[in-house]
Amino acid sequence: MIIREAVARDLNAILAIEAGAFSDPWPRESFIEYIAGRHGRVTVAVAPDESVLGFAIVLRVVDQADLANLAVARGHRRQGIGLALLTEACAHAASRGVQTIFLEVRASNAAAQALYQREGFVATQRRRDYYNHPVEDGIVMAKALAPALEG
Ligand SMILES: CC(C)(COP(=O)(O)OP(=O)(O)OC[C@H]1O[C@@H](n2cnc3c(N)ncnc32)[C@H](O)[C@@H]1OP(=O)(O)O)[C@@H](O)C(=O)NCCC(=O)NCCS
What we know:
Elements: E1 2-5, H1 11-21, H2 28-35, E2 41-46, E3 52-61, E4 64-72, H3 81-95, E5 100-106, H4 110-118, E6 122-131, E7 136-144
Bound molecules: coenzyme A (COA).
């Protein structure tokens, strides 16, 4: 498996993973915009046969970043793919001068919270009724990134 930046031909596979992962999936247009690189960085985990197994989306503003989306295809979970996408996203953000990376996760999403805690994210805030379909609180998590070494 490799992790690379997403290109237009990955769109349908990403949409299928998104639909299988979330009760309120993002619209196609958002992915088109992010893959075009205008407002975010989309990465995909790709198998040797070029099938897309998971993706991550990071939005960056100067020295802060937001892990806006992360999902792994259902049949490929618990194989380290989510962790690999998350680790790469944090390393890339650090290399661009990001000091803190944030994310928001459903209060009931124990799998994702376990992953984020393992990677060093800490819960900082609870946002009441932040999510729809179903309505649920959001947990804000944050991680301070070590500055990338130069040279
Ligand atoms: C959350 C998600 C991305 C994790 O991806 P993954 O590839 O299965 O995760 P990994 O295999 O890299 O797991 C790494 C570690 O995270 C933790 N973890 C992951 N899934 C877990 C689960 N279901 N239960 C408990 N811990 C879990 C474990 O510590 C795991 O290490 P281990 O397998 O050695 O015990 C995946 O479950 C997913 O796509 N969920 C639906 C979409 C989603 O909720 N995205 C996050 C939105 S904020």
